[in-house]
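Hi R.,

Here's the chain you asked about this morning:
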Amino acid sequence: MKKKCNLEIRKKAKSKAVYLWEIAEKLETSECYFIRKLRHELPQEEKDKIFNIIDEIVKERD
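And the predicted structure, written out as tokens:
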């Protein structure tokens, strides 16, 4: 079985109860496009940007 790419992004989003469509919305892209991007390992710089977006979404909820 093939290893799932960007697992740390998926795990952080799930643990913080952030949906992938919410991240896509902040990136101003479609959910479909964002999920397709996650199929291949992203560069660390892009991952860091997504981690910051997840934190931002959580802060907005509080």
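The chain has a mean pLDDT of 95.

Let me know if you need anything else.
M.
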